[in-house]
Specification:
The protein is mostly helical and 214 residues long. It contains 6 helices and no strands.
Length: 214
Amino acid sequence: MRVARKDPLVRPFMWQQILIQAAWQCLVLTILMFFGGMMLFPAGERPNLVTTPLRDERLQGTNRLILDTFVFHVFILMSLFNTVNCKVISPGEVNVFHTLLQNWAFVIVLAAELCLQQWMVNCGRQTLTIQAALLGTGKLTSGMNAAAWVLGALTLVVGVVAKKAPVKHFAFTKAWSLEGENTVRNVIADTLHCEWLKEGPEDAPAADHFKPHD
């Protein structure tokens, strides 16, 4: 795909994928934060998002710690799986795996991150061990682990849906830019009529920043 120098760095079909993925992840995480207790625990054992501490007076992990660990696990897995989506952003290419093995460094780093994430969760304990204290994780059941991996992998499906959605619905993003005066921040400020939100000269890098140094 040829791109002219005057074209914006992020084009509407890119914003389409970014916004749909962001909406999906925000929706899932919001549901898990506020209703995850009803999904994971029986009545009477559901933690309160505000009043239930992570550990009780005996320093034993509560169900709030387990819920927070589950939400954290889902969020990180969603982010890591979405890196696979980001390798192929052309709207006509829905198979994000056909170029996966062309960059072994990416595969190795992704596999290492997935293993590290699972290790951090596996170190979670209800008793206060050194690892659990440092990582702040509780013990998840095998079912919770499986559910987290499924929700994380679903970002690949959402990526396909995002590319299939009509890009005309995201034509408004043509006015968005990451450089110049018409930045996303300024467009939002104009939409909300908030002059104070606009970027001023003080937000721009100083001219000396771009001068070569001896």
